[in-house]
Amino acid sequence: MQKLILALVLSVCVTGLLILLVRLLRRRLRVFSLLSFQLYVGALAAGLKVFSLFGVEEIKLLDEILSWVLIFLGIIVVLRVLGLLYFDIHLQSSKGLRLPPLLPQVAMWVAYLVTALITVKTLFPTAPLTGIFTASAITSLVLGLALQPILGNFFAGVVISLERPFRINDWINYAGTEARVVDITWRTTHLRTRDNDNLVVPNSKIADSDVINYYYPHPLHMERINVGVHYRTPPYRVKQAILYACSRVDGVLEKPSAEVFVLEFGDHAVIYETRIWVEDFAHKPRISSQVRGEIWEEFRRQGITIPFPIRTLEIEPRVNAVQVLSPQDRAETKEGEGPRAHLYVARGGSQGRALVLGGERIRIGRGEDCDLALAEPNASKEHCAVSFEDGSYVLTDLKSRYGTTINGERTDRKVLADLDRIEIGETVLVFETDVD
């Protein structure tokens, strides 16, 4: 009896020490972590071997159990190595396919269970497996009712691993929270938010929820940025300024290119929507912030106002600067002076330039001595001129080679009205009057 107790104590001590050694090695070497289950079985086999060495030959069943443990250990080691070769090397390294961690684990545990049943039936033909299966079925029914939420999460995790609505490192939107998928376990899915917090979601809940995957089927993401602009600024100027600001930000893709839309006419501003494309959703906050900063700076340079939400009460109606002056006003207007206006280059090589008109005659053309020199090969050296005559601004073509077109019509002389579009070759100028 004392010999039996001593053998049992030594067996437990050896098993415990080996298990402790395995746990220590798992923290230092990854290979021990991958083979931890097999090493634990080996520790159990070593403990049984110690128990048998201390002369307990009268327990015949012990040698049979030890033989089964050694055979089972050898087979599952081979299965684990094959699993590593297939899941970690063949699929991940060769084909670039990274499966969720839960799927290889389930596959290996099913293989272990089948191996255990086959080896037990082979070494112990008389073992009452039918009774074991019956008892297991009853036990499984009881445990299934008691552990229904856990089992629901488990099977939901299996479904997520098979369907792959999202994968490890994908950015998703769950319940209004943007986060990166960092792990999918037996029971939960772990998400890392932008605040670097770990959000743990039961698999059954995330499987039943609407999830937006920003990385599937492709990582390109369109970001919308809205900005309000004062009504005095024409839309073509605003669009040009916004697109130029977007082009200066690293991370905004050229293809698909950025677009600007007039979204709505608000109570205090015209609302513009800028649509940009980013290659990686993870960088969206930084890129959006830089785009907003560049838009603000470009608006500041071009004198475009982002208005406050205010109400303006006008007591008297304003006189529109584009209307023709009355004879009395003409008499009071000094010669060579006129209402302030602008010529803005909306399209062409000189796009973005603007010239202030004050009543003096200005010349437009390709020549460097012109008041508004255009980078336009189809423009003559002195193409046309704008002067203030009889209370209105008048454009006169200076016998140019290709002519001047205003609002789609070829013309030699025309009184300009607000927002008239002057076409010289591929260049488009817009006549603007100050309405303030």
In short:
The protein is an alpha+beta fold and 436 residues long. It has helices at residues 2-28, 30-34, 36-53, 60-94, 102-123, 129-146, 148-163, 203-207, 235-247, 284-302, 327-332, and strands at residues 171-174, 177-184, 188-193, 198-202, 211-213, 221-229, 259-265, 270-278, 341-347, 354-357, 362-365, 372-373, 384-389, 392-397, 404-406, 409-411, 413-415, 421-424, 427-433.
How does the SSE layout of this entry go?
Elements lengths: L1 H27 L1 H5 L1 H18 L6 H35 L7 H22 L5 H18 L1 H16 L7 E4 L2 E8 L3 E6 L4 E5 H5 L3 E3 L7 E9 L5 H13 L11 E7 L4 E9 L5 H19 L24 H6 L8 E7 L6 E4 L4 E4 L6 E2 L10 E6 L2 E6 L6 E3 L2 E3 L1 E3 L5 E4 L2 E7 L3
Parallel strand pairs: 11-12
Antiparallel strand pairs: 1-2, 1-5, 2-3, 3-4, 6-8, 7-8, 9-10, 9-19, 11-13, 13-14, 14-17, 15-16, 15-18, 18-19
Helix pairs in contact: 1-3, 3-4, 4-5, 9-10
Structural commentary:
- With 436 residues, this protein is of the alpha+beta class.
- 42% of the residues lie in helices and 23% in strands.
- The protein has a six-stranded antiparallel beta sheet, with helices on one face. The chain has a five-stranded antiparallel beta sheet with strand order 4-3-2-1-5. Strands 12-11-13-14-17 form a five-stranded mixed beta sheet, with no helix packed on it.
- The protein has eleven helices and 19 strands.
- A hairpin with a 2-residue loop joins strand 15 and strand 16 (409-411).
- Helix 1 runs antiparallel to helix 3 (36-53), helix 3 (36-53) runs antiparallel to helix 4 (60-94) and helix 4 (60-94) runs antiparallel to helix 5 (102-123).
